[in-house]
Design a protein that fits this description.
Elements lengths: L6 E3 L9 H13 L4 E3 L9 H8 L8 E6 L2 E2 L4 H16 L3 H4 L1 H5 L2 E2 L5 H15 L4 E7 L9 H12 L3 E7 L2 H10 L4 E7 L6 H7 L6 E5 L4 H16 L6 H6 L5 H13 L6 E3 L5 H12 L5 H17 L1
Parallel strand pairs: 1-2, 2-3, 3-6, 6-7, 7-8, 8-9, 9-10
Antiparallel strand pairs: 4-5
Amino acid sequence: MRSSALGFGCSAVMGRVGRRASLTALSAAYDAGITFYDTARSYGYGESEGLLGEFLRGRRDSVVISTKFGILPARTSLLKETLKPVARKVFQMMPGARKAVQGQIGAQFSANNFTVQVLRESLGTSLRKLRTDYVDLLFMHSAPASVLAQEDLLAEMQRMVAEGKVRRVGISAEPEVVEAAVTANLEGLRSFQFPCNLFDLSVAERLRGSAGDVVAVANHPFGGVQRVAESKALLMALATDARTPLALREKLAVVDDAVLADVVLNAITDGTGIQVVIPSMMQVGHLQTNVAAMERSRFSSQELGWLRVAMVAPMQAA
């Protein structure tokens, strides 16, 4: 299984972002050489997989598809479907309005559904919507550590691999749950997706030291608005720190979005054991910046290693 190191996350497809903008972003990603597409049964209120499957028609053999089960989208009424485009426009004009309705949005989903029946039904729906007879990766979505003891569920996941419906199975969860899964070393459960940014590379370090064939996928690499601001501030501080190597100080003289993307994406994937990183790239400009950063990094592997250590230390001290 081979794919681009930069993955396209479909969590906003048909959710925060409508059909036309979603297709524009998907087209830009595919044209840029991105071949890893990550979705889930719950993304886009249950519509993300369908649009991805439509877009990838005729392209299936050239991409890797990752999806998830365990969080189910609630059924939506005709009125809610009609109001979605209106809500998207409101959020674009008033970003602050999104926080006010986050609780209501969360109520549209049913989480922690990890049963054999849900697995079978969810995968069947995913395959139909994605217009394929198999997915490359199937993750348990936001799973608690308790799923590691569900022998019937794990056995059914392995059965689906044997039947050719899935190439690999794994768990998508918070770092502590993924670390527990790595420690458990369960047969066949060697694929992991988890949040990872420059301030928390603990899972990456744990995976690098683990034995066996492991697939590691990092999501939320920039860590949100606050982490972006913190990252830029730290990089600017390192640019004027006498302990920073001179050549590195020169490269950090201007910390713009391109430099930030270069540091974040390459520090996470270069020499860490993480094969794929998935940032949010629904805006074509962001996508182009991220692609350029990974194709033509200005930093050497040694410099990226130095930055990983230098940036984690202040956060640990704090």
